[in-house]
């Protein structure tokens, strides 16, 4: 059993979830600011305010499956015996494609590209850990299942909305598409849960298709909660239909630029500070439509970019840039279900080259990052072993 220290007043939802601050030698910010309107916890909880010793331990079967490989310490490491985790029974029978940030070794271990000299030869594995500065702003929330996860997600959103509305009279929410949308349906379950007339909703990414197309992220969200919540349509920033993708991106950026700064303030670099950005994560580690090793993922200018050759259909999309995502007050990466277990483990525990796992580049500069997981998606995590992990030396 492995004990994780928790900060004394974590700014996290407490309903139906286990909470782990990502440990980097268990460094945590001692006292994150409390929220004015954090909803009361319901159901069975880990009350982190009174239980600083919440446990997060691998399931017994998983423990048995774990193997560790002692490796030689490389320059800059703080510990003598760094270890690498092993993923057994991967879905990629021929190995994880290099573009996805790691090599699957014949032994079953995963070697990140950054230090690999080729399959089976002289691997010096590095676990991915968030750098110390950023780790203090990052929390992993593990819910029992997708249902309690969706309830927890709704709490986070409602709480962020209450804070923002109190402070500036409006709430700006950015959402993604994909499987995450289903979890958002809970948002409108109680029409009095928030003053939805103050909400502004934009997309982290969208497919360049008609709004009625089954592939449209707007359509999914509209059906899941936008209509039921009654968010004013002029505050729902959907794509203009029928344009070539470059123009769609420009037009969308224009829509966001026109949001008054009282509603959507900017940071010192001119990027918008959304109150909450919710991202899904694809099996290749993509977030929004920022795919591994693509130019959009490396972009450090602009708010919105076109994607004309997305590796995941449909090929034409628009996406927010990473600086926009990282300027947000809060970012949630939402991954529920065991289909996400493999990528969650790699994103949180295996270092990739910058850009090879876009999810690893999500690091809000001033805000907080939450990973929202459930038992399925957290199933491969080796959190109990993190304390033994080699300290963070990036290969860049
Ligand atoms: O294409 C997309 O994929 C990701 C992940 O979707 P999922 O269905 O695998 O959960 C999503 O976050 C993104 O917004 C979407 O456009």
TrEMBL record:
It comes from Apatococcus lobatus. SUPFAM superfamilies: NagB/RpiA/CoA transferase-like (SSF100950). This is 6-phosphogluconolactonase. PANTHER family: 6-PHOSPHOGLUCONOLACTONASE, 6-PHOSPHOGLUCONOLACTONASE 3, CHLOROPLASTIC. The keyword Hydrolase applies. Belongs to the glucosamine/galactosamine-6-phosphate isomerase family. 6-phosphogluconolactonase subfamily. Its EC number is 3.1.1.31. Pfam families: Glucosamine_iso (PF01182).
């Amino acid at each position: 059993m492995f004990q994780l220290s928790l900060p004394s007043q974590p700014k996290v939802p407490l309903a139906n979830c286990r909470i782990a601050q990502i440990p980097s030698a268990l460094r945590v910010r001692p006292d994150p600011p409390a929220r004015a309107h954090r909803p009361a916890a319901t159901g069975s909880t880990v009350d982190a305010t009174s239980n600083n010793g919440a446990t997060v331990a691998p399931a017994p079967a998983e423990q048995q499956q774990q193997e560790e490989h002692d490796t030689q310490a490389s320059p800059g490491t703080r510990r003598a015996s760094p270890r690498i985790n092993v993923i057994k029974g991967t879905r990629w029978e021929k190995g994880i494609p290099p573009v996805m940030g790691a090599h699957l070794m014949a032994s079953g271990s995963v070697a990140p590209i950054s230090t690999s000299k080729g399959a089976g030869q002289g691997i010096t594995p590095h676990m991915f850990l968030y750098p110390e500065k950023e780790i203090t702003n990052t929390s992993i929330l593990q819910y029992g299942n997708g249902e309690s996860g969706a309830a927890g997600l709704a709490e986070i959103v409602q709480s962020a909305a209450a804070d923002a509305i109190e402070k500036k009279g409006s709430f700006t929410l950015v959402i993604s598409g994909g499987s995450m949308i289903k979890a958002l349906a809970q948002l409108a379950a109680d029409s009095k849960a928030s003053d939805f007339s103050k909400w502004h909703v934009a997309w982290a990414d969208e497919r360049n298709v008609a709004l009625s197309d089954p592939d449209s992220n707007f359509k999914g969200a509209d059906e899941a909660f936008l209509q039921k919540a009654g968010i004013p349509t002029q505050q729902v920033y959907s794509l203009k239909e029928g344009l070539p993708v470059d123009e769609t991106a420009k037009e969308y950026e224009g829509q966001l630029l026109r949001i008054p700064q009282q509603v959507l303030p900017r940071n010192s670099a001119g990027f918008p500070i959304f109150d909450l950005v919710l991202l899904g994560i694809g099996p290749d580690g993509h977030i929004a439509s920022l795919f591994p090793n693509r130019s959009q993922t490396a972009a450090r200018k602009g708010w919105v970019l076109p994607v004309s050759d997305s590796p995941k259909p449909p090929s034409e999309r628009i996406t927010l840039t990473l600086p926009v995502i990282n300027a947000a007050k809060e970012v949630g990466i939402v991954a529920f279900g065991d289909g996400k277990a493999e990528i969650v483990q790699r994103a949180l525990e295996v270092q990739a080259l910058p850009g090879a796992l876009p999810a690893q580049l999500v690091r809000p500069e001033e805000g907080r990052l939450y990973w929202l997981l459930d038992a399925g998606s957290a199933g491969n995590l080796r959190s109990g072993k993190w304390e033994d992990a080699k300290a963070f030396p990036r290969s860049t």
